[in-house]
Design a protein that fits this description.
With 343 residues, this protein is α+β, with helices and mostly antiparallel strands. It folds into 2 domains: 105 residues, Rieske [2Fe-2S] iron-sulphur domain (Rieske Iron-sulfur Protein); 187 residues, Naphthalene 1,2-dioxygenase Alpha Subunit, Chain A, domain 1 (Alpha-Beta Complex), CATH 3.90.380.10. It has a 7-stranded antiparallel beta sheet with strand order 12-18-17-16-15-14-13. Strands 2-3-4-9 form a 4-stranded antiparallel beta sheet, with no helix packed on it. Strands 5-6-7-8 form a 4-stranded antiparallel beta sheet, with no helix packed on it. Strand 7 and strand 8 form a beta hairpin. InterPro entries: Cholesterol_7-desaturase, Rieske_2Fe-2S, Rieske_2Fe-2S_sf, VanA_C_cat.
Length: 343
């Protein structure tokens, strides 16, 4: 049998581009015990130290490869359950109980990652090589300006390549058809022409001549983390705050599983209007929003893994083509830089 060799560009995109921040899980996933999560082509161990700060290491002891996540938390270190080897959050082995003073002690033997908590999620810097100081985690204002915006994090794991999730969000026209029974996406023309508008951090793919009617535009941005943003007009019965915004960011788990982070956002100052919307959301609107997301999930999970190899695209798909080309270009740049460094 002739072995199948995967295109290195496709493989890099499949497991996630390097030197970027990615959302990993809701903050509530990591509590008093270490947690093992498979993300970005790796198995990772997460834990909190005595101050509550989250740390991350590759979930593999440098001694025999046992899962560090099965061990004991010792502040900023994990003690491997197999032979007690202690690994600090910076990847340095601090103690080998079975062989004190051996050459493993003091070495940077485990890959470590920088982690931050923002907007109710744990974010990890997916560096190609360990770095002392990562670039800042820059998120859109909807997730950082708490005085102006209020949001809820909705997290789910979808059975499918995360790139299909990106394609779904970069396709405003599907809202008119797939979500036509939604209380917020029943309006608008079922035919439209789209254009691409560049921004300082990416681009906007938008319907021409229609705004604030349906799911009319999607923004894609790269601020050291890839995120997407859109707005859906809301009727007055949806409460105060104007259009309903969604900020999304997506992380690969495996070729057949992905993390989908969606923050539902309203522009509301702190006060009674924000309190009213948050109460209304939790008691009436949240179930409707999950229903819409479920429509997306079911569709994506029932697509064949090679569905994108059998497409016949048209004008409504210009945004998808633009994003795919850009992601492929980023992957090619990273691989070229890696080859140059190796040479």
């Amino acid at each position: 049998m002739i072995p199948i060799v995967q295109d290195p560009v496709d493989h890099l995109l499949e497991i996630g581009l390097k030197d970027l921040w990615y959302p990993i899980c809701p903050s509530s996933y990591i509590q008093e015990k270490p947690v093992s999560l498979r993300r970005l082509g790796r198995k990772l161990a997460f834990w909190r130290d005595q101050s509550g700060k989250v740390h991350a290491l590759e979930d593999r002891c440098p001694h025999r490869g046992a899962p560090l996540s099965q061990g004991v938390i010792l502040g900023d270190r994990l003690s491997c359950p197999y032979h007690g080897v202690e690994v600090r959050c910076d990847g340095v082995v601090t103690r080998v109980p079975g062989s004190p003073g051996c050459k493993l002690e003091g070495t940077h033997a485990t890959f470590n990652f920088h982690v931050e908590e923002r907007a109710g999620a744990v974010w990890l810097y997916n560096s190609r090589e360990p770095v002392d100081t990562p670039p800042p985690l820059v998120l859109p204002e909807q997730l950082t300006d708490d005085e102006t915006y209020s949001h809820f994090l909705c997290y789910a794991e979808w059975k499918g390549d995360y790139r299909y999730v990106l394609d779904n969000v970069m396709d405003p026209m599907h809202g008119t058809f797939l979500h036509k029974q939604s209380h917020s996406m029943a309006e608008g023309d079922s035919q439209a022409k789209f254009g691409v508008r560049p921004t300082d951090t990416g681009f906007v793919f938008e319907k021409e001549g229609q705004r604030n009617v349906n799911f009319d535009w999607t923004e894609w941005a790269d601020t050291g983390v890839h995120w997407m943003r859109l707005e859906i007009p809301y009727p007055k019965t949806g409460g105060p705050g104007g259009n309903f915004g969604i900020v999304g960011s997506y992380t690969p788990i495996s070729p057949t599983l992905s993390c989908a982070f969606h923050w539902r956002v309203r522009k509301l100052p702190k006060g009674w209007e924000r309190d009213t919307w948050r109460f209304l959301y939790k008691n009436r609107l949240e179930a409707r929003h999950w229903h819409v997301l479920e429509q997306d999930r079911v569709l994506i999970e029932n697509m064949e893994p090679d569905a994108n190899q059998h497409e016949n695209l048209y004008q409504h798909d210009l945004g998808i083509v633009r994003l795919r080309r850009h992601m492929k270009g980023l992957a090619q740049q990273q691989l070229a830089a890696q080859e140059k460094k190796a040479a």
